[in-house]
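User: Teach me something about this protein's shape.
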Amino acid sequence: MLLLGLLQTGTKTTPLNTTWMLSAALLVVVLLAAAYLLLLALRRGFGHGPSPADESASAKSLTDNPTAFMTASMQAVIQKLRDQEKELAALQRRDRERAEQTEKLSEAVTRNMPAGLLLISSAGLITIANPAAEAALGVRTLSYRRYTEALGIESPLAKLIAGCLADARTYRREEIEHASLGGELRRLGVTISPILSSTGQASGALCLLSDLTELAALQHQVRVKESLAALGELSAGIAHEFKNSLATISGYAQMIRSETSGDVGENAQRIIEQTRALAHVVTEFLKFARPLELSNEEVALNSLVERTIEEVRDAMPEVEISVSGEMEQVLGDEALLRQALLNLVRNAAEAAGNQSFGGRVMVTGTVEESSGRPVQRISISDNGPGIPPADLSRIFAPFYTTKANGTGLGLAVVQKIVLQHGGSVEARNRPEGGAELIVWLPASREHSATLDSVAAGT
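Assistant: First, the predicted structure itself:
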């Protein structure tokens, strides 16, 4: 029974204890044999000795049976230990396979998550970063880099991670702006949670990221459209009556000028000029406030851009204008798109034309993917003085202008036309100097062309 108990207990051991168990089993067998011999000697001493025939059988048993018993017992113990070793090896193999399957499943889930995932250690090292996080942040190979080095120590995301690691603070549904290495500004939704140790200290941080850039752009477009609609309804009637009053003032001024001379006639002429200028502003405002009626037709951007650039070249031959890249066809109103592009190219040429080292305007077309759909990107950049940083946020606001004779409606009209075509427009300053206006329009891949002309007049 002791041997069986030891064998049963051995099923719970590991292969590392096999030698010890074998030694213990041999010791048990020796003790059993000694006990058996002692029992025979005691029986003989108490007068229960066997007959001569039994004596010879007992002698044979004392010489042969203990050896056979020990041999059989040792073989049984060894076989049991071998069976246990095989069973333990099979259990270890199954556990290892299960762990590998769990690890592969975890890696697949992390890799295919639509949200970005960052796991940061207490030392500030990014130990896990999935492809969605790298795409949202615009940074390649985030793993095993310090978050301050990969994101920038002054970035809003780095500051939130630092607060989580230092104070074990949780941040839920925070919205931040992140500048990628390419200078692109992105809107991110962030949730950061500390990984707490048994002492309650943060041993790491788990960060979930969502790219809200497109959603924020769509929300902005909706707000702009709603504002334009409200502005149009409110101002259309007032502007119409105001224009009628200006026509009356201009008519009386013309009568005074025709009937008088000298200073009175000159003053009447100034009144006529100012009323015409004011009437032009009112007319432009009505165009801006009035809802646009778009004709839905295929517009070949390559020829449209070429014609627009030629018109600006003729008006400002001192400015070098180049065009390159790929231009797709888009659905929309050709006249309105021409008006928007002409306004942007002319503004860029006017900004660059004042430079003593020679003005230059670059128009570049590229095709990008957004939500699985092709998008035409048109960049109009110049080497002018750029846009004051304080003015970037209001450059598309109605009546905002930096020109002495500007109405402040040019870029507002451009934005309205682009929004009506389902696109967006953005203004930024170039790192090397000058401004860049970027237009995105939904594109069609049925026809495309590549433009490449580098000098004015080519």
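Now, about its shape. The two ends are 105 Å apart (CA to CA). Residues 116-211 form a domain with the Beta-Lactamase fold (CATH 3.30.450.20). If you'd like, I can walk through any region in more detail.
User: That's plenty for now, thanks!
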